[in-house]
Amino acid sequence: MQIPNFQDVRQAYLKIRDQVHRTPVLTSQKVNERAGGKLFFKCENFQRVGAFKFRGATHAVGELSSKQAQNGVATHSSGNHAQAVALAAKLRGIPAHIVMPENAPKVKVNAVRDYGANITFSESTQEGREATLQKVVEKTGATFIHPYDNPDIVMGQGSAAIELLEEQPELDIILAPIGGGGLMSGTAIAASGLSPETKIIGTEPEVANDAYLSFKTGERHPVQSTDTVADGLRTSLSPLTFSCIQEHVDAIYTVTEQEIVEAMRFIWERMKIIIEPSCAVPAAAIFNGEIDVQDKKAGIIITGGNIDLDKLPWQD
């Protein structure tokens, strides 16, 4: 599978920009004071379906030939990619078959249903998801849209970083969280092409640190635990995303569960925006001193805002 280049990401952006929201870039004086530098949050929580995933799904579904799209599309996802594929398929007028783990947040399950997709539940393990998806694809003949191991997905996700750098062209650092690595890959490719001097940093939960270990050792490590509050970051890197990260990312840092929850709450309280735990991981790595932004400008991709308000992580 060929690694996309900057021109691929640029072309994807030009194709989808009329279908996706150009999300705001927000700042906060209080957050900057705590960070010691200037943070610019690219707020994909205001994207369609409430997450950056709509960018990649829109591009991937749009790139299918009429024959490929005939029987619809299928995927497995804990939530945001599921919603994104469901809406992208609906807008193209084709069916969507979504496999969701049994522990997927209720808010995300309900949203996928609202977009008219057919949902099949699976065990929460990667193996369980993939086995169930295989059965769905065999039964329906649908085209599988992988959540991240798909060049068209990676290209689409990179469009968020293009918009961020158009508004803030002189960033010293760009940070994103890493789950399967689709956003990190697209962000890194876009930033490397538009702003080669900008440092590109990935962040990850300490308990689900497969990307950190893979980056450090040069060999892909599967995620050992999915027991993190950051439900969007429970998956492992793919060969494609690992290659992109090896080529373009400068460093990866990890944060604790407590740091994630505390950073998430701080951003809710100070910026008055709803963000998922996954989004708080880059900010946590700055707040805990792992990443030094003193007197620097740092861009952070806020990945999504789909959260079950009845189960906030700081509630007992």
Automatic annotation (TrEMBL):
The keyword Lyase applies. InterPro entries: ACCD_DCysDesulf, Ser/Thr_deHydtase_PyrdxlP-BS, TrpB-like_PALP, TrpB-like_PALP_sf. Keywords: Lyase, Magnesium, Pyridoxal phosphate. GO terms for biological process: D-serine biosynthetic process. PANTHER family: SERINE / THREONINE RACEMASE FAMILY MEMBER, SERINE RACEMASE. Belongs to the serine/threonine dehydratase family. This is Threonine dehydratase.
